[in-house]
Amino acid sequence: MKITIVTGGSRGDVQPYVALGKGLRQAGHTVTLLANIDFASLTAEAGLTFRSMGESVEKLLQSPEWRALTEGGNFLKIVMQMNREMSKRARAQAAQMPDLCSDADVLVAGVGGIGGAFSVAEKLNIPVVQAYVFPITPTRAFPSPLTPTLPLGGLLNKPSYTAMRQMLWMSTRAADSATREVLGMPKGSFWGPFAGLDQRRVPTLYGYSRHVLPQPSDWDASKQVTGYWFLDAASDWTPPASLMDFLNAGPPPIYIGFGSMVQRDPHESARLALKALELSGQRGVIASGWGGLKAGDVPESVYLVESLPHRWLFPRMGAVVHHGGAGTTAAGLVAGVPSIVVPFMGDQGFWGKRVADLGVGTAPIPRKRLTAERLAAAITQTVTDPAMRQRAADLGQKLNAEDGIAQAVTAIERSIG
User: What pLDDT, in 10s, does the model give residues 272-286?
Assistant: First the structure.
């Protein structure tokens, strides 16, 4: 079977879909991944065919305008900026989408499919499987990831998904409209494709664990929480010898890194991280991209890393401090160590609250409220609370026993018949 997976965003957004594609390839299917140019090598390493969906997202994230938006944390402004960026490249992307998808027996996509891929599948009569790493199906059980806390005892939970879906649709509507125009299709609904997908009970897979977020009882049988889609390090990957020496020289350090999240004042943020480690008396492993740190800028108790597989690194940490992206949160939980989430925007606060509710990490610290003292106190809590550490270890064992990719592969194969 020929399967095309459509995704986009930063590495944390794309990597689970690469992992899913690798699992499908190992099951005997031919897999093509459509993503932005940043992920050509990652896709090739997984043995998948790569087709570019456009220019570098990493380059966009480093622009001054995007830095200011991300630091501000106003998700609506971020969505509108995304829509403007999509509008700039909408026609060029729309012109190539039909050719990129035309040979697929099935199209697998999540948020990346909203901007035209679902419309191409409709035009070419290609079966679709939705695949997300955060909940998007309305439920009374919990609020949408963009509104982690709501009043009125859950009465607003289900309606909150309408607002979330509309915001996601607003960020990609220009690309979808251009695609439908190129294909000679009528304009899509003002409300986007979600209602139609729901009505047709198009299969929907969720790449997170029921042990972290149980499947709601008000979802129908077309929805399935499969477990996480993890991408393991390449078989020939080995850690730097200097890192191994550092890890062996003392107690497990604290990891601090915020993925693709950008900082308005990166140097001040770096100083904050170093100060928090000093105040808590802990060793640290810091992602050097955060703050532009160099080896000469840090004490001997801190080791700088650029890019290392989280699945390998996190189990060797005493705790992990991160932004709460779905992928990084998953890597922290499966590692079996406590997490400290510092949400910047989007669904990060949702996962940070979930970590705290499960008792496997501290209460999230919003980026705007982050200080060295608050971070130091949270670090101290994670290393001195034996009950939290045990809960984290227990959850890690449950997650390691799951095979979310196998569950998803079976569901995709079953959907085609």
Answer: 999 999 999 999 999
Ranges in the chain annotated CATH 3.40.50.2000: 2-228+402-416, 241-400
CB 98 within 8 A of CB 123: yes
Residue 254: strand pairing partners = 284, 319
Alpha-carbon distance of 378 to 40, in angstroms, equals: 38
Among residues 57, 83, 76, the alpha carbon closest in space to that of 164 is found at 76
Tell me the average pLDDT across 217-244.
93
**What fold does the segment set 2-228+402-416 form as a domain?**
Rossmann fold (3.40.50)
pLDDT 10s digits, 310-357: 999 999 999 999 999 999 999 999 999 999 999 988 899 999 999 999
| pLDDT of the residue at 374 | 98
pTM equals 0.91
State the Cα torsion 412-229-107-22 to the nearest 10°. Answer: -90
Architecture of the 241-400 domain: 3-Layer(aba) Sandwich (3.40)
Cα 14 to the center of its chain, rounded Å: 7
Is the model's pLDDT at 373 over the cut of 70? Answer: yes
Q: What is the dihedral of CA 29, 30, 36, 37, to 10 degrees?
A: 130
